[in-house]
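Help! Submission page says 'invalid entity' but I think these are all valid:
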Amino acid sequence: MGYRTQITMKQTYIYEDNIISSLGFTTQENIESIRSNAIGIRITDDPLLYPRPVPLSKVDPAALETRFNAICEQHKRSVAPDSFTRLEKLLITSIREVIHRDDLNPYHPKTLLILSTTKGNIDLLEERYKAKFNHKRLYLWELARIVQTFFGFVNTPVIISNACISGVLALITASRYIQSGTYDDVVVAGGDIVSEFVIAGFQSFQALSPDPCKPFDQNRSGLSQGEAAGAIHLSSRKPVGNSRMVTLAGGATTNDANHISGPSRTGQELSLAMDRALQQAGIDASALNYIAAHGTATAYNDEMEAKAIALSKAEQVPVSSQKGYWGHTLGAAGIIESAVAVASMRNNQLYRSAGFETPGVTIPLNILTEHRDAEVDQVLKSASGFGGCNAAVVFKKI
Amino acid sequence: MRQFITAYTLIDGFKCMVNGRLLFYQENILTFADFIKALYKQEQVNYPKFYKMDALGKLGFIASELLLRNKDIKSYPPELTGVVLSNSSSSLDTDIAHNETIRNREHYFPSPSVFVYTLPNIVIGEICIRNGIKGENAFLVSESFNSELIAGYVTDLFSRELVKGCLCGWIEVLGNRCEAFLAWVENQADVAETKPGPFNPVPFDAEHLKLLKNQNDR
């Protein structure tokens, strides 16, 4: 049997997932918040983050402490909760829920952790943390090692740091490992915190919206920064039960080869990633029930994405950006937005694109303006980022 | 079909080798900035955007340039060429530079031209722009060069026929410490068509990647 035959045969099943954001600590809590039209982005006046008030989506610090302390108490070794950074707490809390619910064995030699983050423990560059945490924690492999050790994963985690496509790329990488038989179970976890570092940077780009972001809207004026962590467990093992299962059926990345901070003028390259993901999944764009777009709410991104969707002949497909709920969560974005897409498939429900009122891209898209019940069997998630990178992944019920 | 490394660049300790031949070494160089400028001048690379790049961008750009300038990578469709890179410190070198611009509220000057480089994959973008590479791209982080990780990832891309040519390796800068190892990988059939050069292609696998990268250590 050839390798290609093998990779077309092994399915990648989606097991448990978790979302920690301003809207809740589980996927279910987040979905309930979305259903009730809650918006997690709030004007935040925190001089430690930015000299002026700025819209941000933040995870409730006290609630995180409570949950993380409880996890530490139940841990078989004695661990001091305050010896972990904010991002480490977010990641561990998120992964813990997935592992716990699926009763996953991290010690198994065919189980892997993939970590997606753009900036890791970047807050440790700030003076206030210098005495508390070792400088080494700024290295992403040290962050990954701390998470790995907490759970006892035997394999060294794979770390993906590829700007805003990190999360989607981590999911694609996981499915490739599973399809090739390299690993049977992969936990993909991602996270980034809201930091002075990133806020100042986006502000210097004039990319931050003065109000909560409005993806695809005519009056959109930039992105909102958000912090979040997410985890998804993918496996080659067919789950027990008769109900239809969600699988990761295809995925690809491309590069614009055009500009390091501006997207493609044509959207051709993102469209190519979408076409490849669809082809691997064996479906036509017209068969998609939902597109979970990147939708950062910057003028250029949303326009490019609309062009790409049209080039892939998917402009009729219901589409939304979830960033209107929790902003741009960087390394978590691809994971938590995929988790919502998977929830849409499981619940057969589509959720509205928060912040969208008036069409603001040159190509008419079928943007979701309200929550509604629908048969959701095939979904595409896309992402694009600095460095000209694009990624698309297709989820399919079988 | 098997894949072969048909060209590679190795930069370590301000010394630069291409396909196993020493290309650049000057004893009196003490800083990364001096080294990269001298290498750029000696090799007569003419690419004005180079001066805008951060250290990681400059190192990756030059290392790829020295390797690809004699390769006919345009013979491949752009969508079937890719870049997979890795390093240890991500973009920490530029993170520190950006952090310097925001540390002091009385002297607060964050700049988009610095901030954009606070992502390790920007160097991939620079290489893609220069060479018209439009296929698969990924930036992976590991404590030290992990030949199995890179060989596994890139071999999988070839198996899926997502790439016919792929640049891969290690690109690390922090302060004045720099290290680069880039390899161009392509299918055997395509190798047979290329003109015989000074470097005999070696099979692409974890073992050969490790051997080529560590040859200076022996």
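Support: the input was valid. A stray whitespace character was the problem, and the output above is from the cleaned input. Chain A has a mean pLDDT of 96.
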